[in-house]
Structure formats: structure tokens, C-alpha cells
Amino acid sequence: MGCGFILFFRSSFVNLVGLCQILELGELIRTKQITSLELVQIFLRRLKRYNPVLESVITCTDELAYKQAKEADGLLAKGVYLGPLHGIPYGLKDIIAVPQYKTTWGSGSFKDQVLNIEAWVYKRLKSAGAVLVAKLVSGSLAYDDIWFGGRTRNPWNIEEFSTGSSAGPAASTSAGMVPFAIGSETAGSITYPAARCGVTALRPTFGMVGRTGVMSIAESLDKLGPFCRSAEDCTVVLDTIRGKDPDDLSSRYIPLDDPFSVDIKRLTVGYTDDAEMEVVNVLKSKGVKTVPFKLNYTVDSVQGILNFTMDVEMLAHFDEWQRTRQDDLYEAQDQWPTELRRARVIPAIDYVQAQRARRKLIQEVKKSFTVDAFIGNATDWERVCLGNLVGFPVIVVPTGFKNISNPPSEGTRRRTTITTGIYARPNHDHIALALAMAYQSVTYHHKQRPPIDNLGPSDIMPHIHQQLSLTEGCIYESS
């Protein structure tokens, strides 16, 4: 059922709007079937309804959202339409700075921090008319899904957690609490939560999206990317946020050829041993040439190189924080405190040798990447490390569901999501997007929504440390 059609059933639209994709919502706004202000009210209600269970929101930006929505509606009334994100609500991972609102980095050490700067990615979205409704959970200092207010859950199975530090963007998008969100990845923080929560998400080419105003772990690894309903939505958002950030020396203007215009019949796509063959077969049926594929490289310490690089660069940012023992209050003592202590004793020569090996790895992968793209597991740890070190893009694509392990005898609607990754060469994000769109054009896995309103006869909501009514704000109110 299309989103335009369900407007005939206005009373049901509030519940069904969470199913809509950006382009559908954008068309409703453009044609004045719904206002941005109405959308904001709907999504703020959804955020406050589901957050007590999912713990995926840190701050609801109600005041700012209403202001931006009224501005979007006012422009449209004057005949000014800014494009497909005009008036569309969204969320930001809470390592991204927005003036007058807390940017907590998910950590108790910084939970009252207000950075009165506009992150570059926030500026880009604001200029496109998008409306910020929430700062979403980042795992503490962008590490896993534990944060100072709890631990973010997977909407498809609330007894397990979202995994990865972009837990808030993944869970909130999956649950229809926002149409899209911006997350980040240094080593799996887009791919893992996207796969766990069953959403479409893109880790773009390194340097495609500027990072000014964003907490950094490792300047040579950090990337920002969209969590969306579909590859089409990812395309729209990426086209908005990409570009040269003058204050981020690693960012570049990388042309994004139109993914909607790619002739996929002219592409050769590889598939690895762990690829979801349904994706391979669908693309093959649409005329894509598919071949078995494996990336070959001789560097045998990929995971070690990533750990050395990430931990040493992170320590450079948080040296004083650890030296002054503020890490004693950290939410998960077996995470950053332990990693940074290890990084402190890494010999300089070992770090330099790791970077030399990384350069060799990049050269070997470039030579070995002989196909236009390849399909493979998105959460294989070796491949996650490899992709982040080399900086090539991957889009995570939902491909189905399976029953959870040991389901209740009385039945449950909880599911385990199945996903795969479509990888492209650096600066060829449009190829991965085009292939994902081709797959999603004839499948419906990405349109399924988790059962958080009806878990099943024997499912019990997990204990939540702080329940909120629908009239209250998110767990931590805006400043």
C-alpha cells in the first residue's frame, strides 16, 4: 500500500507513516498532502512511544524541529521547494554537534556537553530543508551499543541489543521512529547495527562526507553515512551530505554519478563464498554478469593494522581524559579504557610498520578489485577491517528473516534479520547503490517492519530502567 493511498485513511496514517520512504514522504510534502509540521508531530510521538523500550534516543529536539518544520512549510507556501529532503524529519548520531543541544558522545563523562558549532553534515541537511527531530544514541565514545543511559535494543528482537556504536540510528530507523538517520563508522559501526536491525545503510568511500563538528576516533578511518529504508533513500541522503568540507582536510569532492541511470547489464559483479545467493540470482536475472570472486592480498595482519591505527589515533584524542583517570567512570570498562591502555605501550616502530603494511594493502586490493562490485557478508570481521583500512564503500541490504534461536513455545513475531553487503571500488558508490536499488526493485525485505507493537503471546517487554509517558520527552531532554 503506497503512502499516498493511505492518506485516504487519515486516522491510520499516523501509525503507517513509519513505513514510508523519503521519496514517498517528500512527494506528499511537495504536493501539500501533508505538512512538514504534521510529519514532525508524528515522528516525535513515535520517538517518545518506542524509546522507553529501545533506548535509542538521547535528546528529542522538539523546539528546533518545530521551528525548522514551520520554515519548510513557509518556503513551500511561497513556491520554494528545496528538493526531496524538504521538510523530512531525521536523526543524528549524538557525536554530531548541533548548537544549543547536548552532544554527549554517549558517555557519562560528556553527558552535559554542549558544543555550539554546527557540524558540516548538519549544515548540509539543514540547507536541503531536512528537519532534525532527535539526537540518537551513540555507544559511549562511539564504541558498541552501551551508553550512559542504558543499552540500545534491536527492534526485531528486543531481547538482544543493536550492536555497534551507531545503535541509535539503526534501531530508530528500523522502528520507523525517523525516516532516516546519520551514523558513523570507524570499524563496523554502520555495518553491524544495520545488519542486526535490518535496515539499508551505506558506509561511503572514505573522504566523501566531511566530519567537522563530529567526535573523531581515528581521522584516517572515520566515515559518516546514512541509515535509511532503501537504497533509493541512501542515494538521496548521500547526494546531499557529500562534498568538500573546508575544515576537514581529508574530505574531497567526489563526483557521484547518477545511480538511477546506471546500466547494470554492463556490470560484472563478483560474489564471495559467503554471499546471499538470492541477491546474486536476482541481479543475474536482471542481466548483470555475475562471477565467483575473492579479493587477493598478501598482507596477513589486516585486523592488527586496524586495531593499531584506531587505538593509537583514539588515544591521541583522549590522552588527557585517560591520564586524569576520567576513564574510571566509563560505562564499559572492558572497552575503551582497556584498549587505550594497550595503545599507550605500542612501540612507535610497530605503528609505523603497520602504516607501511596498510599502504601495501591498499595497493594490493586496488589491483585485485577486478570487478565492478562484489556481493558478500557485510559483517565478516576481516572484511570490515579491510574495507575501513582501504576506504571502499559498502551498502548493507536486508535479504530476509529467520526464526530466533529457542523461540517461546507459544509463538513469537521476533525475528533474526538476514543481510548482505554490496561492495564497490573507492569513489564508485553509485555502482553499489545502483545494484542495491535493482535488487530492492523486485523484493520486499527492506519494506518489512519490526513487531514492536505486537511482540507475540509469550513475549514480555524487557525491564526498562525509566518508563516515560507519551507526553513526556525522550530520556534526556534538550538543553
Automatic annotation (TrEMBL):
Residues 1-19 form the signal peptide. InterPro entries: Amidase, Amidase_dom, AS_sf. Residues 38-303 form the Amidase domain. Gene3D superfamilies: Amidase signature (AS) domain. It comes from the Eukaryota. Pfam families: Amidase (PF01425). One of its GO terms (molecular function) is glutaminyl-tRNA synthase (glutamine-hydrolyzing) activity. Keywords: Signal. The keyword Signal applies. This is Amidase domain-containing protein. It comes from Populus deltoides.
